[in-house]
Amino acid sequence: MSTYPMAPLIKYTLLILYLALVLPLPVLAPIAIKYWLLAATLLGFLLVLALVSEEVQLDSSSLKVCYPSWCRWFMRRGWQLPLADIKALIPVATSQAGRVYYLRTKDASFLLPQRVANFSELLANLQQTTGINTSSVQRLTPPWTYQLLAVLSVLMLTAELLSAWFQGLSWQLVLGGGIKG
Q1: Rounded to 5 degrees, what angle do the CA atoms 96, 100, 105 make?
Q2: Could you give phi then psi for residue 92, rounded to 5 degrees?
Q3: How confident is the model at residue 177 (pLDDT cuts 50, 70, 90)?
Q4: Considering the entire predicted model, what is its pTM?
């Protein structure tokens, strides 16, 4: 069985973006709700971590989209498809000028996961086991989009941390009368 987790660039970019967007909220909140927001932020981080932990498992008989055991108990979404049931690969244009692909069976369609690590290996294995041509299938978004988002998220998080540090330093100067070194 081959397992394909979410691509690290996508997974860690989304986690950093979450922190950059949400981490300032408990810091800036009034004391009355500060600890509730901190708890909600940590819970939210665990939820986002679970969401980006989705993985694809491919063996000689089936393709399965699921979550790791640590979060499977509350992330029930997923599906399993016998490879023998796949009849075609259907491309569908998106409103953002991208293209997604559906694995078509006699009765239903299943979205082909395109944000996994080793995507080309997944496609090659899928083509080998089903006989369906996957040579025209590409990733949903080019890597540079997530690279740019990662850089911007890191810059935003760094600016927030530096701002908090300088704010703490300025309060030390005001309250303490100077910096002790």
Answers
A1: 150
A2: -135, 130
A3: low
A4: 0.83
